[in-house]
Amino acid sequence: MTEVSKPSEPGSGARPGGWTRFVTARPRLSLLLALVITALAVLAGSGVADRLGSGGWEDPAAESTYATKALEREFPDSQPNLLLLVDARGGSVDSPAVAAEAKALATRLSGEKGVMGVGSYWQTGSPSLRAEDGHEALIAARITGDEKAAADTLDRIAPHYRGAHGPVTVKVGGMVAVRSDMQTIIKEDLARAELIALPVTLVLLVMVFGSAIAALLPLGIGIVAILGTNAVLRGITSFTDVSVFAMNLTTALGLGLAIDYALFIVRRFREELATGADPLTAVGTTLRTAGRTVLFSALTVAVSLAAMLVFPQYFLRSFAYAGIAVVLLAAAAALILLPAALILLGDRVNALDLRRLFRRGRKARPSGAEGTAWARAATLVMRRAPLFAVATTAFLIVLGLPFLGVKFGTADDRQLPAGAESHVVQQHIRDGFPGNPGGDLEVLAEGGATRAQYTAYRKRVASLPEVAGVTGPLVKGDAAYFTVQPKGESVDDGAQRLVGEVRALHTPFDTKVTGTAAVLVDSKHAIAQRLPWAAAIIAIVTLLLVFLLTGSVLIPLQAVLLNALSLTAMFGAVVWVFQDGHLSNLLGFTSPGSIETTLPVLMFCVAFGLSMDYGVFLLSRIKEEYDRTGDHERAVRLGLQRTGGLITAAAIILAVVMVAIGTSRVTNTKMLGLGIALAVLMDAMVVRSLLVPAIMRLTGKATWWSPTPLRRFHARFGLSESEPQKPPSDAPEPIAPRPDAAPIGRT
Q1: Helix axes 667-682, 599-629, angle to 10 degrees
Q2: What is the pTM of this model?
Q3: Angle at Cα 59 formed by Cα 55 and Cα 63, nearest 5°?
């Protein structure tokens, strides 16, 4: 059994000191400074959404990225990102009137600033630019510049081309239009999600706290964290790319974690007030107990999110930027601003108990009934520990089985709702145009070569088993490029094998391969190469933090394994729903038949961090009770009794926020929101309620074992939520909470 460090003298009546004194010395001044800083953050973060990008899935150091940029520079006609779908309104695109109008549009487009490489069916006669039914054809062009410059150009010119023009109707598509639509829709959906999440969250907080005053505190902390993070992201965009998707995580974690942290701090504060402590002493005790746990929780979540910094894709790195900022700001606000507000409120934190309205005419539930129910549940689980451990583990594994059939792909227009104009254009091209639009490989040849060498290379590529055809070369100076058409779909296994086969060919000149399948191959390689490092960072730091919290060797291992197990339902649902298309009509999305490569990494890091958030809260209370009583089973029972309801309430509130994010019309955002909501609920209601007490019952007092050197290390550096006190050895610990405890303490 781990040695418990010798408790110091009781300090329940002591005034705050050290960091606590610094936090609580000038509460009015602290709140005033917070108000000023928040106002400055609003100004600093204004317009941040307009500076964010909508790409970032590719590895900037990959061969495909280099080739794409080189082709954009040397052969802009080969990389069109703007498509005008010209519809002859049931007539033929070859009719003189339609051809004349289309040529006029192409000529006008070629004169636009920032546009180059304009080509059309009416200029080239290429069959790939004409629909098979003859009613539609394409004008293709390249908008130059980075994402922001290209988006500005599109916004300027698109209204002049979209709509009716004489005998034709024009729709605007292409990758630049897809990204523009995605950015616009995400901003609109985020505003709607906030309108949904804020009032629903407030109602749930009132139900949990009872007091309307107490319920408003977590929302205030969340708003401060969100506004502060927007300012941080605005600053980061000055020197690197940031994805617009990161704003969804800012809102979700800003509200969710602020509510989690405030729930535990306000609960402990109200418990201390119920014992007769004055507000300043109650805040000091709260910071030394629940405050330490909040700090540990914030560190574990931040570490999980920081692991995404090892990946080169700025899509993933953006979530690390936003996540770390919002977690640390939420924790700072909860540990600095919230105590100041609690000191000023004092007993008024319990004011405006709206639950009284629902209790009228109804028999009051006995005090502690909810906590007693959690104690009975824990007792039942531990009495049948082998059954619950095996059944729960099997249940979670079964839910995760669909992930074995995962297929990775790239993000495209099908992320957008069916009615989005750029999605309509791309769908028309997929359904009605010949060949495999957007699915060709492109080979950049550099270093110069003779026509005979290029011809020999073309024949070698054409002889590969997965190749349907090769066009080119188009030569410019010492560079040339070829287009290779795969036999199958653009990113299927055959196309990915073809990328490797083309790259493996020995040539007298340098070749680089790009295209949709090549980008996917390079992205998968970059993630696979760095995933062990990210997992190691998360595992090692989590093990260390949980050890510092508990002093046990076994508990950190249990925490990491059970957290990973809690995510199986999320990954299984992602494949079953979003890849295989089940419930697509109900949820309103188009399944591309694959999962974007970076999404599982992102969802793992976020969900693992949130699971550790709840794990830290539960383990810290179990540790406190074990230090007090030395009774392992009683400590598990009391820990679950005193945190089970609160963790469940926090998980439900966070799930509401994530579901609000999941109402997005962009499939990746929908997947992120709904998937993490499921993971959070499974963790709180299955893993924390059933699996953790069952496993801890099976491991018994060995749970707390630690070798002597580590016991000494923990005695010196370890922290826990327990407020130092030494109860009489013969004093039994009651199972139910104190009758005079505040309502939130009953959880």
Answers
A1: 20
A2: 0.84
A3: 125
